[in-house]
């Protein structure tokens, strides 16, 4: 797909978002399962994974690449695992809460399962080591097109003390030729697909 988007051209961003969401939803259950297993292999072969202790990921929906099988792998590898928890107020904010094999979940306002909120188990965005982020589209420069809510952009835009590695996770069919980043977009350090792990940063 070859579609260049200006950051102010919201209609084009909405169109591309709709096209890519439809594309990833068209993947079969077998393709989704195979992709989940392949990204685990790629991730565990990279030094960022082994140097990271605090790792955040997401609950998949709408055809997103499912990372649920990764949770048990992370726990077995003695990683501390975190999932997003949406704030009741302000409603545009989210936190990252540690989970274990015994964690309890509830549906948030988008219908996604999230751990029961517990401030004592939450970690600041800057204190994470590696964040596996969902996305709708990405390009080879590390630009990311999200769902439009801006939760991840807000969570990491103000991080100044220590920036965790931000790794987008997607099916390879979600790559586009070029995305023009909006002023508020937080760039990715890497993208992980079923085909490969691509790093954009040099450190």
From TrEMBL:
Binding site for ATP: 13-17, 144-152
Secretion signal, residue range per the UniProt entry: none
Coiled coil: none
Record key words, sorted: ATP-binding, Magnesium, Metal-binding, Nucleotide-binding
Domain of life: Bacteria
Catalytic activity: (6S)-5-formyl-5,6,7,8-tetrahydrofolate + ATP = (6R)-5,10-methenyltetrahydrofolate + ADP + phosphate
Amino acids binding substrate: 64
Listed GO biological process terms: folic acid-containing compound biosynthetic process; tetrahydrofolate interconversion
SUPFAM superfamilies: NagB/RpiA/CoA transferase-like
Pfam families: 5-FTHF_cyc-lig (PF01812)
GO molecular function: 5-formyltetrahydrofolate cyclo-ligase activity; ATP binding; metal ion binding
Cofactor(s) essential for the protein: Mg(2+)
EC number: 6.3.3.2
EC class (word): ligase
Family, as annotated: Belongs to the 5-formyltetrahydrofolate cyclo-ligase family.
Designated name of the protein: 5-formyltetrahydrofolate cyclo-ligase
Highest classification ranks of the organism: Bacteria, Pseudomonadati, Pseudomonadota, Gammaproteobacteria, Pseudomonadales
């Amino acid at each position: 797909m070859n579609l260049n988007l200006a950051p102010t051209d919201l209609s084009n961003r909405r169109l591309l978002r709709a096209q890519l969401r439809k594309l990833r939803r068209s993947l079969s259950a077998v393709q989704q399962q195979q992709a989940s297993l392949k990204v685990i292999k790629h991730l565990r072969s990279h030094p960022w994974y082994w140097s990271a202790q605090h790792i955040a990921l997401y609950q998949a929906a709408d055809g997103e690449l499912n990372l649920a099988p990764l949770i048990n792998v992370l726990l077995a590898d003695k990683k501390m695992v975190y999932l997003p928890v949406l704030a009741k107020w302000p409603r545009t904010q989210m936190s990252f809460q540690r989970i274990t094999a015994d964690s309890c979940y509830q549906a948030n306002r988008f219908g996604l399962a999230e751990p029961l909120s517990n401030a004592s188990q939450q970690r600041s965005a800057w204190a994470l080591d590696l964040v596996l982020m969902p996305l709708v589209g990405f390009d080879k420069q590390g630009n990311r097109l999200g769902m439009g809510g801006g939760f991840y952009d807000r969570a990491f835009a103000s991080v100044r003390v220590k920036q965790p590695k931000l790794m987008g996770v997607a099916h390879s069919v979600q790559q586009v030729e070029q995305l023009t980043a909006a002023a508020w977009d937080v760039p990715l350090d890497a993208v992980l697909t079923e085909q490969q792990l691509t790093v954009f940063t040099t450190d």
